[in-house]
Amino acid sequence: MQVVYSPRHLAHDIDTETFMGIAIPANEVAERAERIRTALEADGGFTSMDPTAHGEAPITAIHDERLVRFLEVAWSEVRAQAIPRAFLSADTYPNIAMFEGMSPDAIERLVREPSHVGGRAGFWGLDSAAPLVAGTYDAACAAVDVALTTMDLVLDGATTAYGLCRPPGHHAARSMYGGYCFFNNAAIVAHAIATSTGERVSILDVDYHHGNGTQQIFWRRGDIRYISIHADPARAYPYFLGHAEETGEGDGAGENVNIPLRAGATDADYLEATDRAIEAIGGAPGSIVVVSLGFDTYGLDPIGDFALTTSVYHEVGRRVAALGRRLVILQEGGYHRPSLGENARAWLRGAEGRSFEPLPVAGFTEQGTVV
Ligand code: SP5
Ligand code: ZN
User: Within 13 Å of residue 198, how many CA atoms lie on the same side as its CB?
Assistant: First the structure.
């Protein structure tokens, strides 16, 4: 399988995030992508290539141009406004209750983007846990190029291809970044496939978190079906979307399929959910599936609460590929660094119908014991 990778992700050099008001070691770090790259290289069955530049048009086809411009200048504004921080995090968010009683028209006319960068980050951001640094915009643009180059491989005839996107994308909505995501790589690709082929596209999101951004972008669209298996938002980020009752509206009615799972979900629970998701994909026409691939479902993940093991990723990859559709597989989350490479190898080998033999990882076994 071809792997698309760019070292430009290294510019999004994160070591700290904030969680409920305190600074903690960052989860979404450069080591994640490097672990996966190294493991796929060691496997021998993958060939790596650089992305090609696709320009800004595919991004602004999905995202508000003003969000793109904010992300482009955010870090220079932090410096110009002399904000003494190592990374940008918002001050105030426009909670919808702030505008209660105002008409949509009044809100549209009267509520505007401020000039203070802490206010701007609140205007465009979802949460305080998505740090933005000097190299974030360039890395986010590179991740989009990685995703679109992966798409090109599949449009040119590959059965499967994998884009090692970092930063991830599925929490980014049309006019919002957040959840470690800046541009929605999978949504940009799904839209580009739908417009270039005229075919319907399905997106299967198997990250631990609900992909609220992808859901928002395609909520009213009948040409793109979004299917997500994730932690019930009652207990997990992004909290306010991801319930089973969210099924789309207008042309998109019935095209949004959410499958929330309980804490402690096992391999067996996950395979059952996978079969439901695969059935939902089979119910829509189209020859290509975009996979938002996350490994924060793993039992040892520091921010998830599922109990999955490496072998289930092989089986999920196998079952998804058995649909007989071509797969554009894009990396989203997954924060237990020692297992990321093995979990990616397992999933991707499954998707190619190949066997999976675990390789030793220094200092780690699946049972969590130190060797
Ligand atoms: C792409 C992706 O996976 N984004 C995830 C964003 C999650 N942001 C909130 C993280 C909350 C961390 N909670 C830690 C709880 C530890 N018990
Ligand atoms: Zn996630």
Answer: 0
DSSP character at residue 89: -
Q: Can you give the pLDDT at residue 370?
A: 52
How many angstroms separate the CA atoms of 342 and 310, rounded? Answer: 7
- Ligand 2: centre distance to CA 302 (Å): 11
Q: 274 Cβ partners below 8 Å, 6+ apart?
A: 206, 229, 316, 319, 320
Ligand 1 binding site (Cβ under 6 Å of any ligand atom): 19, 129, 168, 171, 179-181, 207, 209, 237, 294, 296, 303, 332-333
* Catalytic residue from among 9, 12, 63, 171: 171
The whole-angstrom distance between residue 306's C-alpha and the CA centroid of its chain comes to 18
* Dihedral-angle region of residue 341 (phi above 0 means left; psi in -120 to 50 means alpha; beta otherwise): alpha
Residue 170: nearest ligand to its CA? 1
Helix/strand/coil for 162: strand
Active site residue 171: yes
Contact 264, 305 (CB under 8 A): yes
Region of 121 on the Ramachandran plot (φ > 0 left; ψ -120 to 50 alpha; else beta): alpha
* Nearest atom in ligand 1 to 334's CA: 3
pLDDT in tens, 306-351: 999 999 999 999 999 999 999 999 999 999 999 999 999 999 999 9
Q: Which residues surround ligand 2, an ion (CB under 5 A)?
A: 207-209, 294, 296, 333
Q: How confident is the model at residue 369 (pLDDT cuts 50, 70, 90)?
A: very low
